[in-house]
Amino acid sequence: MPHEPAIHHPEPITWQPAPATTPAPLVPVFPEQAGIALVTLPDGTRTLAYTHPAPAEPAPVPAPAAGVPGWAKTTALLAPTLGGGIGAAGIGISYATPGLIALTEALWALVALIAAGAALPVLLRAGRGRSAPTAHITQHITATGLFGRAHGTTNHR
Question: Looking at beta carbons, which pairs linking 117-121 to residues 24 or more positions away fall under 8 Å?
C-alpha cells in the first residue's frame, strides 16, 4: 500500500464540551393538519398519527308520525285512478246509448215476433176446419245459358 501523506491543519483541533442549555421544544416535522397529532402509544412511544374526532352521539330516531295510517295513504293515491276509470266508463256509455236504444227496440220486436209465432199455429188450426181441401201446385222452370230466358210450367192437382 502506498503511504498516504498526512494532512496538516493550520490550527490544532481541540475538544470542548458543549455549553449546557435547556432542551429546545420539539418541532413537528409535518405541518399541523386536521387529523394529525403527536400521540403516545401504550408502550410509551410517541409518534405522529392520524386521529379521528370523538364520535358524536347519534341523533335520536324520530317517532313515527301519529296520524295518517298507511291504508289511508294508499286509498288516497288510488282514488283519482278509480274516479278516472268511472269517468271513462260514463263517457263510453254515453257514446253507446243510441246503439243500446236501437238494440232494445230490436229485442222488443223479436219478443213480439216470437209471441206472434206462438199464436200463428193456433190460428191456422182454427181456420182449417172450415176450408176446402188444399191444392198441390208444382212448377218446372228451365233456362238455357247463363243469361238465357227462363221458361216454366205450372201444374195444379
Answer: none
